[in-house]
Each structure stands twice: as C-alpha cells, then as structure tokens.
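Kindly go through one protein, given below as sequence and tokens. The question is how this chain folds according to its tokens.

***
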Amino acid sequence: MTITSLWKNFSCAGGACQNTCCAGWNIPVSNEDIQHFSSLAKNDYQSILKNIDTENGFMRLHDGRCPFLTDENLCQIILDHGEDYPGETCRLFPRQINYFGEHIECSVRASCPHVVLELLEKKRIMVLYNTSCATKKITEDDKADINNYLPYLKLRDFLIASFQAADGYMAGKIWLLLQLSSDVEEMISNENLASATADNLINDYANQYKNILNECEKVTQNSSRIIDTIFYYYKRFCGAINKNKAEKYTPDLFSDFKYWEQNRSDFEAVLNELYEIIHNDYPLFFENYFINEIFLNWNASDNNFFLENLYSAIVRCMLFFFLMLSALFHNKSIEKDWLSKMVSDIDRDFSHNQETRHQIGKSLADSCNNTYCVPWIFPF
C-alpha cells in the first residue's frame, strides 16, 4: 500500500471548516450506501431515504446544503448514529483510494481547504510512504491488471521524481509533464505502450529535460516574454471559462490591458512581489500540488485521461497564480486561510466540470506549439 504524507496528516475540522464539503456540490449516494442506512431504525432510515434522489444517486440538497448539515456545519447523521453511518463518499472525503490489482494507493483531494493548508504550509517536498497491509487473495485478473498498469506506474514515478527534485523550475517540470503525457496518449491510441517503451520514453525525456532547464534560465531573465505570456494566457483563459467564474476569482485583473502593456515596469514590480511571496511563504506549494495530482490521477482509466486531468491541474494552478496576482493588484494581503478557501473552491469548480476542462484543455493544447508556451507563466 502506498500513501501520501497528506493522507497521514489529514484530520477533518468539522464545524470549524470554512469551506464545508457538505454544501455547494452534488453528494453521491450509492445503492450500497442505501443498504447501509437500512440497518438503522425504520423512522431514521425513512428520514434519510426521502432526502436521497435514488434515480440519479445524489443527496437532495436544500438551498445548496446537505439536508443533514446542521447550522453549526456538523453532520446530523454522525451526531445521531456515529462516524460509521454516513455514506462512503462522506466517510472518505477528501481521501481517495485507488486499487491496482493487489496494490492499494491512498491520497487526498485539494477540494478540501485543510488539504490545501497542508500544501501551503509544507516546507518540505511531499513524499510517498510504502507500507504493508492485509490484502485480498491475488487472482490471475489482478496479476494481469498490474502488468497492464506497469508502464503507467513507471512513467508516473519518473514524473513524481522530477517534481520532487530540488533543482529546476516549475516551468520545466510542467513542460515535462505536458509533453510526456502527450506522447503517452499517442502511444495508447496506437496500442504501443509497454514496459520497454516506457523505459525508452523516460531515457529520452531525462535528456530533453536538461535542455529545457537551460531554456528556463534564459526565460527567467526575460521579463518582457513572461509578461507577454501572462497577458496572452489570461485572455485565452477568460475566453474559455464562465465569465462569472473569472470575475469571482480574479475580479478586474487586467481590466485595462492597454494600461499594463504601456506601463510594464509597474506590472513587473507587482509580479516580482508575487514571486517573492511564493519564494518565501509558499516555496513548495506548486510542486507539492502537482505531485499530489499526478499520484491521484495519472493512470490508465481511458485514452483521454492523462491530458484532460493534467490540463485541469495546470489550469487550476494558472488560476491560483492569477488569484494571487489579482489580490496584489487590489492591495490585499495573501493570507493562508483566505488562499486555502479560494484554492479549494477552484479545485471543486474545475475538477468536476468536464465541459470547462475540455474547453480550456483545447485552448491550451492549441497553443502548445505556439511561441507562448503555457509553462512560462511559472518562471520560479
């Protein structure tokens, strides 16, 4: 079994949480959950059942909140019956468990503000722990499952190790992530991904990565190119997402592009202030966020899984960056509690909105061979 350090350290804040997971989005309820509730007293079971949309498999929300969420933001089902009685999603969230044959992987989602706080406060790079646990008897199907996943796990280990490396720039790491994932998707489509081809890809990209790090050195010295990239991608970004979302997270950021384009020294001063904040206060936030996302999502679920989810993670990181930039433009301090709530909101919005992911993914993909390459908005 492999677990992340975030899994080991997580504990729910309950009523003290500033962004409860029991409101604002659909709460899945499975047939197994309903069967589980049936062990309760008849009146309690009926009370829960009438609040479940059994046809679609969700809890019926009241004003956007779970009907069992109290005014103190506590779960009435837990208060009445104990922690074992909510549905599986509620018992686990933000934890996630993935199975690869006999191997179990445990991780957590950044849709929870307390997970984000852990990411923001980490002064060390995130690590993965291997531990033993009781497992089921291994079948032939399990062995075939592991063999099928082996190439993906090799490539994933390479990507995680690249993000864990102390040297290098985020731009280079994201470039590696995008390009390698693109090649993997092409190999999947051509049914040409095996353990040997995974080894070849790793060797090729290890050499290319050295060259891209040299390019990163040049880019960090070219503030004009960085500013152009930020302008370019913010415009594309706002064109791809819901206008209300853009306004929610980045109010009036670059409301007058001409002013900032004509006053680049002012823009560069704000940008340098943000880099200083990231360097001093959140030096490993972006690396750890990506390590968590790669571990959580990078597997062979389907042919389009890699880039869709990775673009989703990159888009969220772009929005974190724009969010902090917008705060500085409005002379607001970037405090951890505020940032953790906003980041968890963004994670929820973009993790569960497939249409938005596809729109932005296509917008970025169309630009990847352009002079403006998305990683360059992260030159730190």
Residues 195-220 form the longest helix (26 residues). Residues 214-377 form one domain. The chain has a mean pLDDT of 80.
